[in-house]
Design a protein that fits this description.
With 215 residues, the chain is α+β, with helices and mostly antiparallel strands. 33% of the residues lie in helices and 25% in strands. About 3% of the residues have low confidence.
Length: 215
């Protein structure tokens, strides 16, 4: 993406240059094409930079995931139209939750990251994890944590002889991050490490495998 100064320089260069007779593909250049390019450059120069934020870095509120975050009561802090990573972390802090994000060295904004949100429930501390691009991974882990808090039992204290339900943590792996043909091998490796495949679900970014194990 060009900076505003670069857009300004391109506009001035176009204004003083003689347009070519042919397009890049060898076809004649239409008279209106140069003007249309200048119009788009001016619009980009005058636009709000926050409105052009790449969806790889934020979760728009008009997406399925964004709607789930709104429904769970999470707040937007920096952008009016999307959740950014900083806002999600601030929401965790407001609720007293812990959040941990692990990104491998050499990654970028689209590299799958492991996000873990920890909450304290009636049976102790619970952790919820997701493995996707950073902002999505944190969002999904937060939604899982919010659901756990929402369904926390409010019934009277159980008798001492009652065995409490086991605590568990979840871990999600995006299908796109698994080498083609290695799906079964990945599931087997996770099973050997004590993880149970509980479901395969569709997300805005494709399908993912969700594993669970008791803690």
């Amino acid at each position: 993406m060009l900076s505003r100064n670069e857009l300004w320089l391109v506009l001035h260069a176009l204004a003083g240059a003689t347009p070519p007779a042919l397009r890049w593909d060898g076809n004649p250049l239409e008279p209106w094409e140069l003007g249309e390019l200048q119009r788009k450059l001016r619009a980009a120069l005058q636009g709000d930079a926050s409105d052009a934020a790449d969806s790889a870095f934020v979760t728009p509120i008009d997406s399925e995931l964004g709607a789930e975050l709104l429904g769970a009561g999470f707040d937007r802090r920096a952008l009016s139209h999307a959740f950014d990573l900083g806002s999600l972390v601030a929401d965790c802090a407001d609720r007293g939750w812990g959040v941990r994000l692990e990104l491998p060295r050499g990654g970028n904004a689209r590299t799958p990251a492991n996000a873990t949100v920890s909450v304290r429930g009636a049976d102790g501390e619970l952790e919820f994890s997701a493995l996707e691009r950073p902002v999505v991974a944190v969002a999904r882990a937060m939604l899982a944590a919010a659901a756990s808090v929402a369904i926390a039992p409010t019934a009277p204290e159980l008798p001492a002889t009652t065995i409490p339900a086991p605590a568990y943590e979840e871990y999600a792996i995006a299908s796109a991050s698994i080498q083609r043909g290695k799906e079964e091998q990945t599931i087997t490796r996770m099973t050997e490490q004590g993880w149970e495949l509980v479901r395969e679900e569709q997300t805005d970014d494709g399908s993912r495998y969700v594993f669970r194990r008791t803690t």
